[in-house]
């Protein structure tokens, strides 16, 4: 379960790398060490996968986030093949993810002695594989929270993350204001032209502004002009082909982050030199992501990168992230963000970052760790409502044994791979070989099956609809997106085109609230902050002004509670408003807007508040209209305008100069605190 599956984390600062470099390449050498321990690089507190726990002498145990099962677990009756049935057996509940099973008839008792080993079991400890059958029906496990044989969602001990928040009173209120029904048009522009906005909202119903708010990290004058110039269809086609969009100056300046393009091997080899320069690879990756969100012209691509970083989430900061997470961002998420999700899921499951993050490097046929197998089902494919059971999790975990990391690269260890029949959801395979090429191919076939499963199509569709359309997307839209996903075998661009060609998207003006990170990025974008340092500012000997400034933005996002790839658990950040309703966070965001208006972060260049409007009108009311158009790209209502004028203490007809009689910063900050800037 995602909320329990938290890899241990170390405190971070700017002093450099303080983590061990995985002397055993992330794999706990159980044959020689006989225990999980700090030497492997994890060393977490009791209950984490890295807690020091003695292994039994023989046989198999199931390993989850709480470590090995309790000693003294009752043995399976008699010999025979592994027992992974779903028939609940009283007295065998040992806590979620602590299922203790006997593989091949090895009866595990207190102290770890093996009372019986049949020929199949002896095959686990020699070179020649002996096939088992993980679909047997003798013994089972289970907990009160997750009874065996039931789908997790039917127990309702927890729900999919966004859904769990939407079950609140605030969620119910949002549902009442969501548009219902919808239809598919020939293209986005046709859908925009034909779709009326019927829900209550303070946002302007201009489709150009709506598209800019949803398909980017914040509308700017340039984005709005580009959409009008290219047309809605033309702009979207351009955004869906990001390779043809030239990098901006800010993206070129990312060369000032020394670790960004280094491979895991280079990061390992250059650790000492990078340490002396104060470089932290996982934090520089976050810095670069923030820079791209603010300044890249490939905005839809960056929105999708952020989407996948929440959907197929690997935290930036875990023990190993300093070496591998940068590569995961580049070679998995960014490589497939607008491509094929089946290919992304396969690439992720072969990447050291995910294998380390969810402890797959620890999983072997005689000590099966289920973490990655569970999250592949629960979070990365079919979802908690997708129809899998605990039996499916255990068989998937057995199938995936053998995958690991050596010398900083993905490897397959044939001697650690379980051989024998498996059946997971509707996927079945004899799994009769531990030959690396054959076994790897079987695992990839299973992952492809998961990625193309109808439940995955619905889960991806609902997640995309929640990100782009509404916290409460309609069933008609989710079904339509899922159908496109299935018809195109998991390709993402057709799904996005279906979304933008659906009336539900264009009818949902004002139905999304910016999360803290999105609010901050949108503020930088709408103010027109530039990546060059203010005149006279000097950096330090370790980082350039640009690198320093990006780190300050990251630190501010940490204070607000959201930053790219920042959640430690593998479920990623929630994408619905009710998960972020914090008055303190909102005020902190407003304060940061005040800092930017004052130009206090000298690592960047800011327009002076009095120059936000090119030709400031002479009266206060007209000035507020122009300033609102510049910052939130629409006029305010009469009531809102009066409130803004009240901050300056002047009536609409009062004469003002370019500085709004020295109140322009306060007036601009008030507009940036308005619902028009918080909604997207």
Automatic annotation (TrEMBL):
Pfam family, one: DUF1800
The keyword Repeat is annotated on this UniProt entry: no
Stretches that traverse the bilayer: 99-117
Region Disordered: start-end pairs: 1-96, 137-156
Basic and acidic residues composition-biased segments: 10-34
InterPro entries in alphabetical order: DUF1800
Keyword field: Membrane, Transmembrane, Transmembrane helix
Protein's name according to its UniProt entry: DUF1800 domain-containing protein
Naturally occurring in which organism (per UniProt): Micromonospora sicca
């Amino acid at each position: 379960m995602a909320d329990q599956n938290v890899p241990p984390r170390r405190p971070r600062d700017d002093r450099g790398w303080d983590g061990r470099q995985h002397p055993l390449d992330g794999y706990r050498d159980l044959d020689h060490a006989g225990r999980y321990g700090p030497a492997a690089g994890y060393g977490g507190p009791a209950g984490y996968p890295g807690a020091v726990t003695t292994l039994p002498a023989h046989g198999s145990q199931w390993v989850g986030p709480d470590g090995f099962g309790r000693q003294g677990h009752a043995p399976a009756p008699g010999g025979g093949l592994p027992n992974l049935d779903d028939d609940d057996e009283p007295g065998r509940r040992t806590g979620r993810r602590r299922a203790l099973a006997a593989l091949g008839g090895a009866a595990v008792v207190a102290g770890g002695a093996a009372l019986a080993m049949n020929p199949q079991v002896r095959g686990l400890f020699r070179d020649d594989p002996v096939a088992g059958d993980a679909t047997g029906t003798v013994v089972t496990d289970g907990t009160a929270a997750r009874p065996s044989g039931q789908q997790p969602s039917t127990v309702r001990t927890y729900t999919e993350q966004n859904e769990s928040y939407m079950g609140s009173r605030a969620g119910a209120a949002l549902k009442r204001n969501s548009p219902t029904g919808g239809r598919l048009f020939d293209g986005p522009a046709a859908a925009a032209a034909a779709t009326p906005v019927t829900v209550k909202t303070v946002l302007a119903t201009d489709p150009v502004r709506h598209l800019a708010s949803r398909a980017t990290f914040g509308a700017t004058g340039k984005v709005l002009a580009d959409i009008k110039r290219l047309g809605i269809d033309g702009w979207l086609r351009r955004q869906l082909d990001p390779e043809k969009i030239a990098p901006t100056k800010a993206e070129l300046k990312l060369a000032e982050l020394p670790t960004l393009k280094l491979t895991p091997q280079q990061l390992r080899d250059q650790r000492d030199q990078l340490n002396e320069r104060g470089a932290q690879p996982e934090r520089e990756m976050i810095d670069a992501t923030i820079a791209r969100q603010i300044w890249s012209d490939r905005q839809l691509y960056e929105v999708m990168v952020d989407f996948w970083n929440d959907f197929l989430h690997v935290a930036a900061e875990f023990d190993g992230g300093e070496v591998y997470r940068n590569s995961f961002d580049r070679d998995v998420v960014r490589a497939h963000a607008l491509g094929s999700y089946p290919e992304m899921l396969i690439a992720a499951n072969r990447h050291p970052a995910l294998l380390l993050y969810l402890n797959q490097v620890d999983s072997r046929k005689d000590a099966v760790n289920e973490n990655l197998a569970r999250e592949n089902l629960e979070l990365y494919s079919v979802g908690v409502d997708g129809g899998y059971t605990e039996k499916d999790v255990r068989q998937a975990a057995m199938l995936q044994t053998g995958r690991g990391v050596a010398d900083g690269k993905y490897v397959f260890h044939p001697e650690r791979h379980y051989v024998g029949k498996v059946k997971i959801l509707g996927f079945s395979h004899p799994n009769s070989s531990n030959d690396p090429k054959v076994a790897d191919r079987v695992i990839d076939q299973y992952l492809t099956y998961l990625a193309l499963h109808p439940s995955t199509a619905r889960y991806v569709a609902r997640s995309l609809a929640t990100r782009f359309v509404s916290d409460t997307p309609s069933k008609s839209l989710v079904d339509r997106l899922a159908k496109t996903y299935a018809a195109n075998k998991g390709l993402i661009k057709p799904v996005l085109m279906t979304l933008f060609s659906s009336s539900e998207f264009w009818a949902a003006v004002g139905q999304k609230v910016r999360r803290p990170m999105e609010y901050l990025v949108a503020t930088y974008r709408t103010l027109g902050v530039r990546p060059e340092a203010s005149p006279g500012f000097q950096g330090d000997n370790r980082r350039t002004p640009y690198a320093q400034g990006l780190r300050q933005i990251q630190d501010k996002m940490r204070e607000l509670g959201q930053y790219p790839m920042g959640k430690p658990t593998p479920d990623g950040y929630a994408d619905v408003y009710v998960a972020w309703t914090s008055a303190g966070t909102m005020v902190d965001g407003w304060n940061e807007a005040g800092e930017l208006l004052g130009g206090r972060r000298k690592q960047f260049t800011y327009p002076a508040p009095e120059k936000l409007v090119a030709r400031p009108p002479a009266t206060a009311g007209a000035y507020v209209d122009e300033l609102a158009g510049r910052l939130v790209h629409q006029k305010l209502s009469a009531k809102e305008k009066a409130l803004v004028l009240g901050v300056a203490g002047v009536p609409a007809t009062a004469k003002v100069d370019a500085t709004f009689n020295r109140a322009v910063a306060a007036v601009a900050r008030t507009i940036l605190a308005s619902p028009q800037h918080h909604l997207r």
